[in-house]
Every structure is written in C-alpha cells, then in structure tokens.
Amino acid sequence: MQNKITQLFNINYPIIQGGMVWVSGWKLASAVSNAGGLGLIGAGSMYPEVLREHIQKCKNATNKPFGVNVPMLYPDIEKIMDIIVEEGVKIVFTSAGNPKTWTSFLKGRGITVAHVVSSVKFALKAETAGVDAIVCEGFEAGGHNGREETTTFTLIPMVKEKVKIPVIAAGGIATGRGMLAAMVLGADGVQIGSRFAATEESSAHQNFKEAISNVKDGDTQLTLKELAPVRLIKNKFYLQLQELYKHNPTVEELKELLGRARAKKGMFEGDLENGELEIGQIAGLIDSIKPAKEVLDEIIKEFETLKSLDF
C-alpha cells in the first residue's frame, strides 16, 4: 500500500501512532513500527535522559522507521532536540508551538519533520516553515487540542485545498472505516492515538486502559480552554472543574486546582478519580485491550475490504 505518506516515512501503511504523553513509550512505538505503521515515542512526558533510554530501546526492538513527538512548549526542548540528533532519530513530529523554531534545525540534520495543526491558518504557516507533512487534528481528539473546535472531517478538506504537502488526518479515527473516510476527504494518511492507548504495549496504567474501554459517547469533554484546551474523561477531577467554573474562576484558580502532574497521576499511575484522563471521543468505539499489531491489522483489513466495495 504505497502513497505519499508511506514513501515519505518508508513504511508499509499510512498509519501513524500518536505520540501521546504517558502512553507512548518505546514498547508501543516499536510494536507499531514492526507492524508496518510509524510508531512515535511521546517525548512530552519524558526527562531528556529518559527519552534517550526510550530511543535506544526502540532502536533495539525494531529495525523499521520510528519517530519522536515533541511538544515545543517542553522546558528542556534544546536538550531533547540534541538527544534526537545524537541518537540518529530520522523522523520528528512537532506540536504546540511555532514550526519555524525547530524545522530548519531538524531538516538541516537530515530529519523528516511533520507538524500538528488545528486550522488552515496554522497549516499554511507550517508549510511555509518547510515541514514535510502536516497532521490536521480535529476537535474530537484526546489530549490538548486547538482552540478552533474544528472537527477532523471539516478540517481535512479545507486544509487539503490550501497546501501542497502531504496531509495526515488525526482525531476521531480508530477503525478502517474512519481511515477510509479521512482519505476520501483528502488525507494521505491517518494518525491514531486513542486506539493505540488501549493496547497491551501502551505504557498507560492498566486502570486507564480499562477506563478507555468503558467510555461511551458523551463521556469525554473539552475543558480548561483558558489554559490549554484538553479533552478528558468525566471523573471526580472533571466534576471539580465544573463546580469551579460555576464561579467564573480566574486563570490562577484553574491552575491551582489543576496543580502538577495530574496527567501522570491518572494515565500513568492509574488514579481514575483525581487524575487527568486524556482521551478522544472515539474511545466510545473502543471496547477491548489488544496487541498493537492486532489493532493495526484490523484497521488495514477493514480499510481494504471497504475500499474494494462498489458503493
């Protein structure tokens, strides 16, 4: 199955695993890459030397391409970028910042760069900055989203009309049906997060994986827009937020309630009541925890079956 994305990243299938904080360690990234997709290590929750360890373990676990996702708001980003170069990583996905800042640095060292955007405006900026591909992430996605609240299936065709570089759809995709729909609308590939979060190789806590598999429609909500919009499973912490919102809180009051390390508490340590449980709306379709290869194989099988039908 060859197209612009498989050729760009030298992979078998145009499926990229989202580089999610506290979820996307070397085990998940290498499993997805070994299965023919592109695995990403999520650097956003790793100290620099922890990232180095994950990169080295990933290199030992796969001889296929893999990459690192780097949120550019990371405080030690210079160290992160240096480690990526020192360890010979060839693919980097950047997010949460201006792509101009690091794209030329990375490309000057032979690294392929993709950047995550949530609007046509930012897609054009990323293309101008010289990235090799754009990830268009819709409002349905888990974790931190753009403020525009544009859905994936409206964003993809609008961006596709304006840019010339490959477009990867993200947000609300977990099946072969979703992949086919995104590509019909113009996407060259898909990035899938939530479905891979609920896999055996995911570094998420088992409690969080089981919580994902129990999510129904309406169980997630985008909140904390005053800080950084994030989609969460509704739990005790979420309800505390809603109670605070009744009193028109200041940014400082929201920060005080949020505190530190809530995502780690929920997703990595398994505190389903007090933790921040970041997941996408598509979790309502996820009802089991499987090996990453099985997930990817099912997606491709369904995609190929539906693609061959004469509608």
Structure explained in plain terms:
By secondary structure, this protein is α/β, with parallel strands linked by helices. It folds into 2 domains: 4-203 and 283-307, TIM Barrel, CATH 3.20.20.70; 216-281, no CATH class. 41% of the residues lie in helices and 15% in strands. The chain contains 14 helices and 11 strands. It has helices at residues 4-9, 26-34, 48-61, 77-86, 103-107, 120-129, 152-162, 176-184, 194-197, 206-214, 236-245, 251-258, 262-268, 292-307; strands at residues 15-17, 39-42, 66-71, 91-95, 112-117, 133-137, 143-144, 167-170, 189-192, 220-223, 230-233. The strands form 2 sheets. An 8-stranded parallel beta sheet has the order 1-9-8-6-5-4-3-2. α3 packs parallel to α4 (77-86) and α8 (176-184) packs across α14 (292-307). The model has no long low-confidence stretch (mean pLDDT 95).
